[in-house]
Amino acid sequence: MITNVIYAVLVLGVIAVVFGLILSVAAKAFEVKVDERLPKIQACLAGANCGGCGYPGCAGCAEAILAGKAPVTACAPAGAEGAAKIAEIMGMEAPSGEKQVAHVLCNGGEASVKNFEYVGLHDCVAATKVAGGPTACSFGCMGFGTCVAACQFDAIHINAQGVAEVDKEKCTNCGACREACPRKLIVEVPYKQKVFVNCSNKEKGPAVTKVCANSCIACGMCERTCKFDAIHVVNNVAVIDYTKCKNCTMCAKACPRNAIEPIPTPEEKEKFKAAQKAAAAGKHDSAIRDIRSQLRRSSLQHAVDGFHDLQGRLPEGFLRFLGGNLHCFGKAGYQVTSPDIHKIRFGTLIGRTNLYLDILCGSFANQKVMFFTHIAYQ
After folding, report:
1. What are the per-10-residue average pLDDT scores of the chain (378 residues)?
2. How far apart are CA 369 and CA 65, in angstroms?
3. CA–CA separation, 170 and 76 (whole Å)
4. DSSP 8-state class, residue 76
5. What phi and psi values does residue 162 have, to the nearest 5 degrees?
6. How many angstroms separate the CA atoms of 201 and 216, rounded?
7. Using alpha carbons only, how large is the chain's radius of gyration in Å?
8. In sequence order, which residues have a C-beta less than 8 Å from that of residue 132 and are 6 or more positions away?
């Protein structure tokens, strides 16, 4: 009995050894060689299998990088450090560039008007299937957290105002939240950027004010305030050029709707307005001095040229010719007081004050002359 058991064990052992040898030979004979760099590249990836790179998991991303179908920066969660390691493995130069993070271009939430009370699946995509969503603003965040569910790094949450907000310290810029948002409110911005226009509504001012108290109305105050040409109104909404923006926050202080982040305090707003008034007063005094200088020139044409030059250099609305032309007496544009002396009055408007500038021009001893008389306010 015991002998039979021993024989059985020996036979099974021999069979196992034989099959092991066969499998070993087969593995060598039919071996599929794998690039030794592949596992190294995969080790440099985040390992989250988030799909933000557009490939099926981290293994698929590593294969694409190795095949040259994806850049070494394909895995955003791996960051610049991971990309540098992959570039070293691939024998390439490490990429340079500022870190990017996600940002939600909306500041509506509780400030936005609701068309109806939505009761259903707590999901933004599902909510849009019901009459386009509960918010009157079709460009705003609905706050149901589809982006929150998509993020695997706990980097985005719904804030107290009911709007999705990104924690840039945790954000890896994987792009999952951007793909999940049905209204495409989430964009990629530089990590160091501090100023944002938190509005995406492209409708015109009157329509926008009816749906949200924090919306951009395309008034252009931010554009006129910026000294770096970094913000412009495009398609009825202000857009920042992050390559030019200096994060000075002057546009945020100028915005009458608090649509630009960081939102200034009431005290900061008052200080900004006071500074603007002081600057305008300084330009007013300077303009008067320039006008006096121009009008003392030796011919009427010099005076006219001077006015046109001043009009181009002064703030919009500060100096203009009434009716688009020089405002003068008489059908011919001036009042003749003698055969060779003409009196001309230039008129313009500064705020609510009419500004009149009288000059006398004509000829004396066959020479063209002009006499500046006075500046009068009314």
Report:
1. 75 84 80 79 85 84 86 83 86 78 93 92 93 93 95 93 94 90 94 94 89 92 93 95 94 93 90 81 64 50 51 41 33 37 51 52 45 45
2. 80
3. 12
4. G
5. 85, 25
6. 7
7. 36
8. 138
pTM above the 0.90 mark? no
CA atoms of 72 and 90, how far apart (whole Å): 9
How many whole angstroms separate alpha carbon 27 and alpha carbon 30? 5
List phi, psi (to 5°) of 11.
-60, -45
Q: Comparing C-alpha atoms, which of 132, 136, 163 is closest to residue 148?
A: 163
What count of other Cβ atoms lies within 10 Å of the Cβ of residue 261? 17
Q: What is the predicted pLDDT for the residue at 137?
A: 94
User: What's the confidence (pLDDT) of residue 297?
Assistant: 46
pLDDT of res. 151: 92
Give the pLDDT score at 285: 64
3-state SS track over 105-172: CCCCHHHECECCCCCCCCCHHHHHCCCCCCECCCCCCCCCCHHHHHCCCCCEEECCCCCEEECCCCCC
Q: How many helices (H) and strands (E) does the chain have?
A: 12, 12
Give the integer Cα–Cα distance in Å for 186 and 189.
10
